Amino acid sequence: MSEQSRLSYLFQEASKLKMQERHSQAFDLLRHCQAIDNEAPEVLYELALYELYFRQDSVALGLLRRAIAFDPLNTFYKEALATYYLNRNQAEPALPYLEDIVALRPTRSDILAQLTRIYTSLNRPSDAIRALDRIEVLEGKMPSVSYQKFALYKQMGQEEKGFSELESLCQEYPHEMSYRLAIADQLLAADREEEALKVYDEVRRTEPENAGLHLSMLQYYRHTGNDSLFAVVRDSLLFAPKSDSEVRVALMRDLIATEVHDDSLGRHHIVETFDSLDQNFGRDLDLLQLRAAYLATYDKGNDSDFVAVMDRVIELEPANTQAVFYLIQYYGQHQQYKKLEDICRRALLTHPEELPCHFYLGVALYQQDKKSDAMKAFEDGLLQKTDESQPTMVADLYSILGDLYHEIGREDDAFEAYDSCLVYQDDNVGCLNNYAYYLSQLKRNLDKAEEMSYRSIRLEPGNKTFIDTYAWILFIKGRYTEAEHYINRVCPPDSSDAALLADPNISGVVLEHAGDIASMNGNTELALRFWTLAQKAGGNGLTPLLPKKIRLRKYVE
Length: 557
Fold this sequence. Notes:
By secondary structure, this protein is mainly alpha-helical. Helix content is 77%, strand content 0%.
């Protein structure tokens, strides 16, 4: 077999391996091909692609340049090198390769478009116009190309040539009035008001109800200082039944932009206009969303109005997830649990796959003491989880479900839920702490409980609840001196009784733990003090043995 035949065979095999995504073997075969013929451009090109993947950029560039040198008519190689530079925002080195490509492949309008952008960025408007001319030859007259050429001619100070481009576009599409309006708008921007007005009148004679014409005339009145006529025409368009929603939104955007930074009268006028529009076009979703955006941007303290608008947005468009999640967040933060329940139930009718809706529904139900319903909400949410679900949300669902199972005495189910939570998020601190504490209460798997509790205080070293859990687990394991070290960080012995009772992070249970630990370390007076404070603090979780501890002046179990 000749060297050339061997090269051809090995290259084909390498290509097959690459298609099978067996890249290591493909790369090795390509290196063998290079050893056979170090000037084979197809081999150099494929090796260059692998070197780019390996981030060996200088090696890859050398290979690509050599491939181009050995096969200068191959546009794939040149395009790969140009793309490398463009991806790194290096337009100038890419330019000669792109120019070569369109010289070899004159019909590549996509490359001509790239050249246009590069020439424009390099302040070479004449070259950009020539590239656009070639695109027009290939694809015909197009508004986007004509507008680009107009801007480039204007940049060059050749305004009349620019207007000629727009006139040519109008001749190509004589029935499309938007192009004539574009000419008039540009004339107006150039302070050529009389010429602009003639074109506007021409459009009016052809299409008197053209919405674009009305908007352009508004700009004409503003440009010429006719503020009173501007206001009259704007209001007539805003409230005209025939006006499109798009027109109303555009006009309101303009009103907001021009008046929002004025004194309070300007903002009052904006709100008043929104109110009036609402009476006439209350089901215009775009207007409602614009009003919501206005409130969120310029009236951030007006929560009640914003919530009212969001409620109406959802009524008109139940699937509007942005509005739904805003209201979920708002009602949750403001502890309006009945409304939170309602919005979550409505959201789940259209978005049953949204785990946050199940989660917050469960929270809302729990806060209303509907614990069995809350449990079902979390269980239903977990039925919706997929491989694409956000792991932290799945973990939170499992974690709080575990808390609920524990609350009703289903300990094994609770621990199974906690284990599932930690599979999805191994640093879920709430789960780590609760799981550890409940194991310690049952004196089960204490080593596992200690490890989880220690991780929780490493993650949140200032959390007194977590530190108390760790101290209590050490106590249960008989490591009283270590337990004292940690509980003293929660209930410092030198703190006043009033300070300990006033601390929201120190419950009656924590104070009882502190007393138990002090007692087993031989500090009876401190133990009595903490136990007495625990009685005063009260709350759930205190043991029935607390009065006996105080009476006997020692720890009992």
